[in-house]
Structure formats: C-alpha cells, structure tokens
TrEMBL record:
Belongs to the G-protein coupled receptor 1 family. The keyword Nucleus does not apply. This is G-protein coupled receptors family 1 profile domain-containing protein. One of its GO terms (cellular component) is membrane. The keyword Membrane applies. The lineage of its organism: Eukaryota, Metazoa, Ecdysozoa, Arthropoda, Hexapoda. GO terms for molecular function: G protein-coupled receptor activity. It comes from Mythimna separata (Oriental armyworm). PROSITE patterns: G_PROTEIN_RECEP_F1_2. Keywords: Membrane, Transmembrane, Transmembrane helix. It is found in: Membrane. The chain crosses the membrane at residues 46-69, 81-100. Residues 61-104 form the G-protein coupled receptors family 1 profile domain.
Length: 104
C-alpha cells in the first residue's frame, strides 16, 4: 500500500532539516544589543499629554451635550436622535480607545 522512500531521499530530508537549524554563518543578535523600550522617550510624554488633553476636553464636551440631549423635554426629533448616537459613539472612542492607545 505505501511505498518505501529511498534511503538517499531520507538522508537528504534529514540534512535539510538540520541545516535549517544550523546557526553557523548567520548573524546572532546579542541580548545586550537590544534596546530597552521600558524607559519612555521624551516624545512619548508629549503624546500622552496630547491624548490626555483630548480626553479631558472631549469628555467635558460630550458629557455636556449628552446631558442636555437627555434633559430635553421637547419632542424627540430625528436630529436629536442622530446627535445622541454621535455623542455615544464619540464617548466610546474617548473612554475606550484613547486609554488603550495611551497604554500601548
């Protein structure tokens, strides 16, 4: 049912397998050459500051608009519904995406 593989093919496959793992002649990166990225760079502080300012300004503005839309006693129009959905989507970005972006 199964045919046996010739011995020379088997030896060639074994040789290719071990040649793949042979590190001779390749450049090996020294662990001490790797830059430590746990120390924040100065521009990272600037980015965190900008995101924090955007988060604060967006939170104040969107929560204010959302509160005024919810307190409105007049008839709920399509524009009010659209504005409510836009504010909710913007708050999702502000309170979920921006903190994830800053932490990465």
């Amino acid at each position: 049912m199964f045919q046996e593989t010739p011995p020379d093919v088997e030896v060639d496959c074994d040789q290719q397998f071990w040649d793949y793992f042979n590190m001779e002649g390749t450049s090996i990166v020294n662990v001490t050459d790797v830059v430590d990225t746990t120390i924040p760079a100065p521009e990272q502080g600037f980015v965190v500051g900008v995101y924090s300012a955007l988060l604060a300004a967006g939170a104040v503005g969107n929560v204010g608009v959302f509160a005024s839309l919810m307190r409105s006693r007049r008839r709920k129009s399509r524009v009010n519904l659209l504005m409510t959905h836009l504010v909710v989507a913007d708050m999702i970005v502000l309170f979920i995406v921006i903190p994830l972006e800053v932490s990465s």
